[in-house]
Amino acid sequence: MAQRRPELVLQRRPFGSWLLGPAGQSPRQLRIRSQLLLTTFSLGTNIIGASVVFVLMVFVLPGPPANHELQLVRAIVFPGYFLLALLVGAIWSTRYAVRVTSWVLEERPATRQEQIATLRLPLRLTMIEVFLWLLATVLFSALALIFQPDNVLRILVTTFDGGIVTCAASYLLTEFALRPVAARALADQAPPKRLLAAGLSTRTVIFWAVGSGVPVAGLMLTAVLALIEKDVSATRLSVMILALGTVVLVCGWLLTVLTARSVVAPVRSVRNALTVIGDGELDVTIPVFDGTELGSLQAGFNRMAAGLRERERIRDLFGRYVGPEVVREALASDSIGGEERFVAVLFVDLVGSTELAAVRPPTEVVQLLNKFFEIVVDEVDRQGGFVNKFAGDAVLAVFGAPAELPDPAGSALQTGRALARRLTEELPEATAGIGVTAGTVVAGTVGDLRRHEYTVIGDPVNEAARLTELAKSVPGRLLASMAAVDESAPAEAAHWKAGEEVTVRGRNRPTQLAIPS
To answer: What are the φ and ψ backbone dihedral angles of 415, each rounded to 5 degrees?
Structure first.
């Protein structure tokens, strides 16, 4: 069976189950869904728990047969109290939950006090059920003491043990139903520094005791009652052991599964989100819906993801100013440069930009420059070059530093030819001179400790600038040095032919020109 994609799991089941709905559900939908789940879980667990207790008390556990008075109590008081407790518990729990979560319908962030009250809501709702079960234990035991004292111990232990297990299951299910509400309470505030629920180790011990210790203690007490009642047959003793053993296994399994899922759900959300981040998608946030250490884990992941997004944003902005190659080199080492490298240098300069600025509105000039820079950057990137700087209306591009290229001279020459063609076709209202050369330069960072700039320094840079000035007055507006052509691959060199020798301004030796053939 195909495995679910982690990003889809995060979108469809952000709280670990489809029952809890999506993260973006409206406050009204959230309130209705949560209340339905709370009511269903509360009624279901208490009905099942009370039914099991009644069956064990009346038909399974050893003890003297109930007299007429106790039978009337069982037939009238037990069902009457049970129905009344369900009604009172449902009304009491609903009103309390509505009051605590009133901020949800108001569509505002929870205050710190409301956040704490919301995270403690599962425990408070469970305490209502604990109170009603304790009251049942006291009431039924008192009635048994009045009408048939021999049955007091059996009724007391059965009701008490059944209430503990039922309330523990109800607490875990209530916590599950309130995950989306807890997530909204924690959405706009940092998680509390101290835990608002029992920690994982404490929770594990408590639910082991409730799910295994209490039922096993009840099983042992049954053995004691069987010893006290001398006439328990082997058949009845076997039936009691089988029935109680089944109850112990089911209760232990149920609480273990619920406890495991309460732990696994937040861990799984973090795992799925980490998988998504590992695939390169950083725009990931998971809901924080747990009040234990696992909630701190979820919040820690969100802080980590936010830090990664900020780091990537800074890296992207940094790369826009200095180039992605420089960013990669800077991240790989504390400092860049000071090394001699063979590179090719391409210089592009607009013709008549001063006149354009004088006769056109500033917005049009900026649009023209941006279109010009877009074409230049596109072609330089296409050949693996590095746009070192924008100088007014000119661009200096380097091929072979900081990232090495197999044919820097050929890449620069090919970029020059592509630029000459595209600028003529796509930017006819402006012309630019293009100069290309190659040679050895010093590449590295210059500046102060507080402000660095990556650049290349050497004679090829000056030569490329001078060739650009000459290119402005020749057909095609493109000139290169034969030194660059000689260093390029034969496939690119075939597109060039030698021109005249000139001594450009600022150099004391002649340059053999090359023009496109």
So the answer is: -65, -40
pLDDT, tens only, 284-323: 888 888 777 787 788 888 888 888 888 777 666 655 555 5
pLDDT in tens, 445-472: 776 666 667 788 888 999 999 999 999 8
Is the Cβ–Cβ distance between 267 and 294 less than 8 Å? yes
| Average pLDDT over every residue of 195-222 | 69
CA separation for the pair 232, 219 (Å, rounded): 15
Could you say which DSSP state residue 333 is in?
Answer: S
Among candidates 478, 346, 336, 491, which has minimal Cα distance to 420?
478
Among residues 70, 260, 61, 86, which one has the least CA distance to residue 172?
A: 260
**437, 399 in Cβ contact below 8 A?**
no
**Other CB atoms within 10 Å distance of the CB of residue 331:** 11
Query: Cβ distance 133 to 50 under 8 Å?
Result: no
Single-letter residue type at 441: V
Least confident range from 90-99, 107-116, 444-453, 502-511: namely: 444-453
Q: Residue 110 and residue 123: Cα distance in Å, rounded?
A: 19
- By 3-state DSSP, what share of the chain in percent is helix, strand and coil, each rounded to 5? 65, 15, 20
Going by pLDDT thresholds of 50, 70 and 90, the confidence category of residue 1 is very low
Instruction: Give percent above pLDDT 90 in the chain.
Output: 24
Residue type, 207: F
Scanning the structure block, which residue is given the tokens 């969100």?
302
DSSP string, 454-493: EEEESHHHHHHHHHHHHHTTSGGGEEEEHHHHHHS-HHHH
Judged on CB neighbours under 10 Å (0-12, 13-18, 19+), 59 is exposed
231-255 exposure pattern, b = at least 16 Cβ within 10 A, e = fewer: ebeeeeeeebeebbeebbeebbebb
Give the integer Cα–Cα distance in Å for 455 and 284.
37
